[in-house]
Write a structure and sequence with these properties.
Radius of gyration of chain A: 22 Å
Oligomer: homodimer
Protein name (chains A, B): DNA-binding transcriptional regulator, FadR family
Strand order of the largest sheet of chain A: 1-2
GO molecular function (chains A, B): DNA binding; DNA-binding transcription factor activity
Organism (chains A, B): Cryobacterium flavum
CATH topology of the largest domain in chain A: Four Helix Bundle (Hemerythrin (Met), subunit A)
Strand content of chain A: under 5%
Order of helices and strands of chain A: HHHEEHHHHHHHH
CATH superfamily of the largest domain in chain A: GntR ligand-binding domain-like
Largest sheet of chain A: 2 strands, antiparallel
Helix content of chain A: 55-70%
Number of domains of chain A: 2
CATH class of the largest domain in chain A: Mainly Alpha
Keywords (chains A, B): DNA-binding, Transcription, Transcription regulation
Chain lengths: 229, 229
DNA sequence: TTATCTCAACTCATCTGATGACTTTTTGGA
DNA sequence: TCCAAAAAGTCATCAGATGAGTTGAGATAA
């Protein structure tokens, strides 16, 4: 077991064993060095690992703390990695996304309030009216994010946000066929919207699944290159 | 932007930009130092971060490589973190698990082969017959894992495995009420099994959802302490 | 020629010491 | 009592040295 592994599991165990709870502060670097029996470099690498995973946070000048350990934060750690997956191996993940989108759409249909209905309506209208090819994808994301939020599960909201950001990088709307794709996409949004507003979970679920399936079709067919800013 | 951030995003960009593909080797530490303009310590911390996220791998004496970038590997990086979440904030995640279990059960019902049927049957029988309280949870895990595998999506298999490992740490069967819990649990398994064997996706989906919901009920009611080995 | 062994070069792993930068607490004065 | 400056504590970063594992070229023997 390497020095970094010792430090990593040592730190992790402090949380798993209940010695430290969410938000609590670790002993100082110096104290941890002697407790874990590794050098400062190894300890710092272990801290960075747990930090990348969203489990702990280091604050310069203050100390190192256990994070709030909220599921949505943990899922958020996927954001920087999902973008790196090649399109080829991504279809499994789209199946996952389809299942989850169906679920949030159904939940939203069951729970949406009048105020939220108005908000969602505004987004659909704005999306269909958007001429700017920069704005359309942004509204698209907002539309789906709002549905996720209405469904009431922050973890799912974050996870689907991660997936969606990945899709957006492909910029389907910017393809030569972008106009037609947008037309079909907007129609899909309208279908989802109608089902949700009518409080029809089954229809919303089916519409969302179909919407994702459509996206997968486009990606498989066009295989657009990712934008690398 | 801190030195580690510079190194982290620099490395990440080498993959995102396509300069390095899955399995390819990074330049040596020394070469990266001058390219990224940070010290060895900072570079190593950044490498560890990406390594913890499952994106790259360092091999002692050989070099640092991009991982295979398979979705299931990325999801696997959650294994060490989900176990740390407190029960209180875990219900959102169980909703996620319920949705996914329903899906894999339905998929399995649609796709199961005769050989797989026999295999699954053996597991159900063994589980109901298991007297040893150590073996029962293991067979339980195998039963669900097999269903996931039959459903044909490695990413989902890994993700659900992570969630299930989390549940197992609570050792419901070891409670005073364990015998009754096992009886109900085994009945749930039998229901799921029957639906899958009958190629009835809808029934399988419902049975799986109910099985997860039952688990959540138990956890909420008993709030057992985690086992910390 | 082919197979195997040896060793040098290359690579990551770890430790140590020193310095900088930021935050929090304490302290002293108004 | 309030506020600002000082001090203490903490993480951030760099640089150098040494250890340990891997790899491949070249020597050697079959």
């Amino acid at each position: 077991m390497s020095a970094v592994d010792i430090a990593f599991h040592g730190l992790r165990h402090m949380i798993a064993s209940g010695r430290l709870g969410a938000g609590e502060k670790f002993p100082s670097e110096t104290a941890l060095l002697s407790e874990l029996g590794v050098s400062r470099g190894s300890l710092r690498e272990a801290v960075r690992m747990l930090s990348a995973l969203g489990v702990i946070e280091s604050r310069h000048g203050s100390g190192t703390y256990v994070s709030q350990l909220r599921p949505e934060e943990i899922m958020g750690s996927l954001a920087l990695t999902v973008d790196l997956l090649p399109l080829s191996g991504l279809l499994d993940m789209y199946e996952l996304r389809g299942v989850l989108e169906s679920h949030t759409a159904a939940q939203a249909a069951a729970r949406i309030s009048p105020e939220q209905t108005a908000e969602l309506f505004d987004l659909v209208e704005a999306m269909e009216a958007a001429a700017d090819p920069e704005i359309a994808p942004e509204l698209d994301a907002q539309f789906h994010a709002l549905i996720d939020r209405i469904s009431g599960n922050p973890t799912l909201t974050v996870l689907l946000g991660v997936f969606r950001a990945r899709s957006r990088a492909y910029q389907l709307f910017a393809l030569p066929e972008g106009a037609e794709i947008r037309r079909v996409s907007d129609h899909g949004h309208r279908t989802i919207f109608n089902a949700i507003v009518l409080h029809d979970p089954a229809a919303a679920s089916a519409a969302a699944a179909s919407h994702v399936a459509q996206t997968v079709e486009w990606l498989r067919f066009y295989q657009p290159a990712v934008r690398t800013p």
